Each structure stands twice: as C-alpha cells, then as structure tokens.
Amino acid sequence: MSKITALNARGNGAIESIADYKDQLKSSMLLSLQDLRPNLITSVVLVVVKVGDVMMTKGTDYMLQLRVADPTTGVNNTMPLSIFRRTASSMPDIRSPGDIMYLEAVKTNQVEQDCHLYNSFHTSWQVHNYSVSVEDTSPIIQYLRQWWQGTSMCTLRKSPAKVAAPPASDHVNDGTFTNNDMDISEDHARRIENGNGASAGVLNSNGAISNPIADNTHPLAVAASAVSAAPRNTNHTMAVTPVAPQAQVNYTSPIVSTTSRFNSQYRRLISEMEPGRHGDLVVEVLHVEPPAPDNNFFGDKMQRCVVTDYTESPLFSDSSRMPVDLAIRGQRLAWCTIHQVDRINKMPQLQKYGKYWLRGAKCVYAGNGNVGFAVQIHPKYMRTILVIQIEDGDAALEPLNARRQEVLQAPVQAALPEPLPDRIIDNAPEEQVPYHEP
C-alpha cells in the first residue's frame, strides 16, 4: 500500500497529543516540519497557512508560493513552499488556508537560516480542502484539521490564489510530476542587497521552523502568544563556519560616476568582504570553467570562475596557484561559484577577461582557509538580474582599470631556483677554443 493510499484509509487510533502525532508520522514514514533538515528528499503532510498568487517565470512555467505549518511549528513559524508547474491548470487545487497537503518526494533547501520546501520532477501530492469533511481519512489528516480549527488563524483565512485548476471529482486532488510538467528554466531569482549580510525578502520571524511547541499546541487550545514567545532551537540549521577576523584593508570604496547604471549603496571591493557578508561587486573574470552539476541544488548546474578587482586581501588564495594566464602578484584572485546558472534571469555567457557586475554576491569559505564568492538566486524574487556584463567604457570600470594597469605594470619578483649542492655554477666567460684544420 502506498503512502497516499494509507493516508486515505480511515484510522482506528485517535491522536491526542504532539507525541502521538509524531509517532503516527514515524509509522507512516513521514517527517514533521520541525524535523526537516536541508538537502533532503522526503514526504510531509502539512497545513496551508497563507496562499500566494500564481506567477509566471520567464513565460515558460508557473510558480505558486505557500506558507505552511503543522503542530510542531505552529502557525506563527511557517515554512515557505514553492511549487513549479509547466501550466497554471496543473497546480494543486489549493482553495483557502486550512487546506491539508500531503507531498511525496519533496526536496528541502537551506536559504540563510530558513529551511524551504520545493517540488521536484517526482513530487506527487494530495489536497484535502478545508471546506470538505475529513471524517473518513486517516488520524493524521483528522488531527491536522482539528488542530487548524483550534488555532486563531482559522478565522483569518486569506482568499485563495486565482488558479485555473481542473475540477476534482472529490475532496482529494492528486498530482504527479512528469518531466514535461517541470521546466528546467524556472526563474526564481535571488535579491540580496544588504552589505551587513542580511537577506532581503525572507523574514526570519515568519519563516523559522524551530520553535518547540509544548502543551499549548493541543488542537483545541493553541495560544499564539505562547507560541511566539517559546524559546528558539536552532539545531535544525546547517553548521556555520566561524567567521575569520577581518583583514586590514587600505582600500576605500570606489566612487562611481553618476552616469553609470551600476551605482549601488551596497557596492564593495572584494578586499572589503569577509565570510558571511554580501555585496555588489565589479570584477574581471580571468578563468572560466564549463558548467557542472550543482551538488547544492538537485538537477541544476553551477559554473565556477576566477574573479578579481585587483585589490588584495590575505583571505584570498595565492595568485601564483590560480589557473590564470596573467602574472599577478600577491593575493588578489578568488574563486566565484554561480549556482543554478541555467535559471538566473538574463544570465550572460561568462567570457575570459570580461567585466561583470555580481549583485548580492556572498563571501564564503572556499577551502584551505581561503575565501571565495557565491552567487545564488532566491525563490521569492522572480526576475532579479544577478550577473550583468559591463561594456568597455562604462564609468564603473574606471577604478578597476586603474588598479589593473598598476598591478600588471609592476614587476613580479620570481624566486630563482637554488643550485644543487653538488653543482658548480661558473659564470666566467666560456673559453674560446681555436679552430684547427687537420
């Protein structure tokens, strides 16, 4: 019997507490939202708290954003759920908050300190609409309905998104993904515009899922104030590498002409960046690798390149060890990884010696104690352009070109090899032996 069939079957044992609810989930091979970790492909059952509008992405597919919860997280600590479909009519039949969804083969991803849910090619679902009785369903579905009816959010239901969903024959709406339903060019763009490392668009107070819920999560007695005041447990987040001390930098932020389109209050020199900080960068690409599978995003591709703005920082790798053709002294080069390169809106083709604007780049550890940069899209911002090629002559390139000329004109002192102990080097002029005819 499949999980979907099992959830449709009427159960005999009633669920009386959170512990019983978790036991039922475990026996059904399901995870609660509180137990989710990044980079999983799992099955969950949840309650829709907020319903967004269906939006087009690049005109090729559609996205529906929801806020979901369950008794382990509470309605004040919802989790984002993004559903992508090839057509709007193939979206789940979500009619209002309070609808119960079962998702099989859904994937999780870490965005800052929040865990997000996304569908995949193999995701299937059921929807139990709030307006239809769940008397003949499993104890899990019945418990979620009772829990939702006991929350204060039940009276604050938002109008559902206008989705042209096909009519369902009953209250269960099944959906199964095929490769044709999911377009690989989905455009969920990242917009990070905070130089102090904060992420725009995702509110931790509304997206965290880690609040442990105690006795006040009973389906008939949920106190929203008690839920919001519960202490936070951040064990669900990914491990964060300790931030290295900031390097002493003598450079100042470049003054950009008002005629340049790349004016930004978040513009930074790469030497001013430290791990965990975001900024808008103007860089030159000195080495480009072909796109490769992205281990952080299932089914997507990433592209690595070596970038510089010719400022120097002790956090960067030694330039002599980087795969570049130019002889650059000091520590001025860094690896940059562009995630989900096929999905970024208007992503240009990276070219060697091309100049680019990297919006919202994050300074991250790249291994061996050195740092690099990462550019990653955010699912809440659909059309933000993150990488732009800067044409020659733009005022934004004047500071970079000046530093480039200064660095490349300075001689690079290469260490001469020391002679071996048993080798004698004689710098005297070679003796001219006269030519004798026989």
UniProtKB/TrEMBL annotation:
GO BP term, pick one: regulation of telomere maintenance via telomerase
Keyword DNA-binding in record: yes
GO molecular function: G-rich strand telomeric DNA binding; telomerase inhibitor activity
InterPro entries: NA-bd_OB-fold, POT1, Telomer_end-bd_POT1/Cdc13
A single cellular component GO annotation: nuclear telomere cap complex
Annotated spans, Disordered: 419-438
Keyword tags: Chromosome, DNA-binding, Telomere
Domain Telomeric single stranded DNA binding POT1/Cdc13 residues, every copy: 30-149
Subcellular location: Chromosome, Telomere
The keyword S-adenosyl-L-methionine is annotated on this UniProt entry: no
The protein, known as: Telomeric single stranded DNA binding POT1/Cdc13 domain-containing protein
